[in-house]
Predict the structure.
Amino acid sequence: MKTRINIEKVEPAGYKAILGLEKFIESTPLTRIHKDLIKIRASQINGCAFCINMHTKDARKAGETEQRIYALNAWRDTPFFSEEERAILALTEEVTLISNHVKDETYEQAAKILDETYLAQVILAIITINAWNRIGISTNLIPA
């Protein structure tokens, strides 16, 4: 396998636009844990090996446990995640699998737990990693 195209070099303005959204997400009060859970879970669903590799390493460096990382794809069946994290993970899955739509109950649960600004930032973080996943998968980025 080899990388197909380097979008950053071929279309730098478009790449910078997505990078700008990433920089915005990094500037928000979203916790590091929440950002990492969103990035890893969406990347698992999308099958982006490059992003899974990068974000699990980042999460471990930030203090996330191996146990929680390994259990992330089965988060509903473990006691390892808080109510807030569960709401964020459910929303991450449904926004990532958007053709199935976001259920009212999923959105309402997240809205009940998260304030409006934090909820907006979570949704933007989910959208951002999905954009990166699509770049990684369509260009065949290879994890190092």
